C-alpha cells in the first residue's frame, strides 16, 4: 500500500510538471496535494514497516516529537489544500469569465505559501506544548506512531492547556476549512442547477467530481478517527481507524484524481512515449 501511495502521487507530480498543458491552477494545487500526501504517509509508514521487520518498536524521544510535528504539519496541509481546491472550483464554475484573472499565478502561490506557513506554525506550537510535559519512564504508546492525543494522555504532568489547544485547533482549522468547502459547493450546486442544457450540467459537475470524492474520503476518514477516539476505549480500535486516515486515503487519492481525468492520462502517455523515443 505504501509503494502504491508513493508511486501514484509521484506520477501525478511528474505528469503535471512535465506537461505544459497542465500548468493551470487546478493541476498546480493537485500536484501540491500529491506531494503533501506523499510526505504525510512517509512520516509514519516507513517507521512502522521497520518496526515490523526488526520486531523492535522503540523510538527515541526526539524521533517521536519530530514524527508528531511532521504528521500534524502534513495533515493540516491536506486539510487546507482541499479547501483551496474547493475555492478554485468555485471560481471556475461560478465566475468562469473572471477565472484567469482571479486565479492568477501570484494568488495560487500565495494560497499555497499561506497554507504552509499556518500549518508549520500550528504544528510547531503543538510540539512545543508537548515538550513542556513530563513523562514517566518506560513509556509505551498504544498506537503505530506518535499520535499527539496518545502522547498527551500518557503525560505525568498537567495537560489542561494541551487539551484546550488540541480541541480549539481542530475546531478552528478543521471545522473552519470544512465550512468553507461546504459554502463553495453550495454555490457550485446552485450555479449548476441554473445551467439549461444537460450536457452543460454534466461538464460542470465533472470538473469538480474528483475533488468532491477526495473531500468526502478525507473528512469521512477524519471523522471516523475522531469518533473512534472519543467513543472507543480500545487503543486497537483507535489505531485501526487511524490506518484509514493515514494510509488508505493518501493511497486512494491518486486513483480518484487520475482514473477519471483524461488530461492526466494523456500527459502520462506523452511522457512515456517521449522517454521511449
Question: Your description of this structure?
Answer:
- The protein is an all-alpha fold.
- The protein has one domain: Rhodopsin 7-helix transmembrane proteins (Rhopdopsin 7-helix transmembrane proteins).
- It contains 11 helices and no strands.
- The chain has helices at 2-18, 25-42, 45-54, 61-94, 99-102, 105-131, 148-153, 160-193, 198-231, 235-258, 262-276.
- Helix 1 packs antiparallel against helix 2 (25-42), helix 4 packs antiparallel against helix 6 and helix 4 packs parallel to helix 8.
Secondary structure elements and pairings:
Blueprint: H1 2-18, H2 25-42, H3 45-54, H4 61-94, H5 99-102, H6 105-131, H7 148-153, H8 160-193, H9 198-231, H10 235-258, H11 262-276
